[in-house]
Amino acid sequence: MSRRTTRPGRPAAGARPPVVTAETPCPCGLPATYAECCGRLHAGTAAAPTCESLMRSRYAAFVVRDEAYLLRSWHPDTRPPAVDFDPGMRWVRLEVLETTDGSPFHTMGTVTFRAHYTDNGRPDSLHEKSRFVRHEGAWVYASAVFVD
Residue 1 above 60 pLDDT? Predict the structure, then answer.
């Protein structure tokens, strides 16, 4: 997901991300708790073994508004200086539609997905094909093409 900054990367006063705790289901949609799934990657205690797991963890980072993780997992050649979290936007569900390459044995891969959200209460979705590469041994987000 490639939301780039156009204004300071801080939500408006009073805007809060959804409450996600270690015990709640992971926002990425896999059948695990946040602590067992993407929370480990966000905390830096585990690395994404595949580009799909990195993509899922980045989606979860948008849900919990973890700017530090998003920037850490972004290729330095395309990384923005900050992430702009729209205070009216709530990410609600992720559908992974296709993954190409991106296994522990690859150096490149793509993930096509649809991320559902509400924008000030109105439902919408983002359909994107993201490209991931290995950088210094770790999967990082490189670029994306919007499908719709």
Answer: no
DSSP 32-91: SBTTTTHHHHHHTSS--SSHHHHHHHHHHHHHHT-HHHHHHTB-TTT--SS----TTEEE
pTM of the model: 0.88
Please state, in angstroms and rounded to a whole number, the distance separating the CA atoms of residues 84 and 28: 20
Residue type, 131: R
Q: What is the dihedral of CA 60, 64, 66, 69, to 10 degrees?
A: -20
Residue 92 pLDDT: 96
Residues sharing a CB contact under 8 Å with residue 47, sequence separation 6 or more, in sequence order:
41, 138, 139
Which amino acid, one-letter code, is at 124? D
pLDDT tens per residue, range 108-129: 999 999 999 999 999 999 999 9
Are 148 and 127 contacting, i.e. CB atoms less than 8 angstroms apart? yes
